[in-house]
Amino acid sequence: MKESYLYPHIDTLALFEAVRQGLGEGSVSPTWREQSEAALAEASSMLGLLSALSGAPVSIHPITAQEEGVQRWLLRRLLEVPLGLALGDIRGCEHVEMGAGPIAVLAVAWSRRIVCLSRECFERYLEELRPHGEEMACDRCGAQVPPPGPRMTMAQLGHTILVAGLCPECLKGG
Question: Which element (helix H / strand E) includes 134?
Fold first, then answer.
């Protein structure tokens, strides 16, 4: 199956492991760690809220580096978010762009914009983040999905939530 990535030529999993091993224990300040833990808690609670508010069936996938199939694709797409921000291909709201510490963010597979979970930013960018009628393709494999369209799928890595629309074949983990 051909999978869709923002950076197919970059092995984001290998990059993630190299950075993680390079940092080592104690390389993050206690303040940064506390901010990161707070952002993680906020993202976790927002994941449940988004699922409840969607009004449609939602698949929530746990993410581990050992997984294959759809979980591995979701992990790679989640890892592309900070890479895209660093490269300037993904834009964030002002809180993401100018943030002095880790904050919870929402990314969608069909947009190159991410937003923090503040009510102001979430509402301001909601229309841009919402899939439109012509977007009936699976975000993973690109297959056209008949109405009602791809099923909303969410995954979380740290303080980043990713929403993607997947076809039935990709949802089966293929």
Answer: none
Q: Is residue 1 one of the residues assigned to a domain?
A: no
Question: Distance (Å, rounded) from C-alpha 81 to C-alpha 5?
Answer: 11
Q: Which domain holds residue 127?
A: 29-171
Asked, for residue 77, whether it belongs to a domain, the answer is: yes
74 part of a folded domain: yes
3-class DSSP string for 73-120:
HHHHHHHHHHHHHHHCCCEECHHHHHCCCCCCEEEECCCCEEEECCHH
170 is written with which tokens? 């990709």
Residue 27 has pLDDT above 70, yes or no: no
pLDDT in tens, 147-157: 878 888 888 88
pLDDT per residue as tens digits for the range 113-147: 888 888 888 777 776 666 665 568 899 999 998 88
Evaluate whether residue 24 is within a structural domain: no
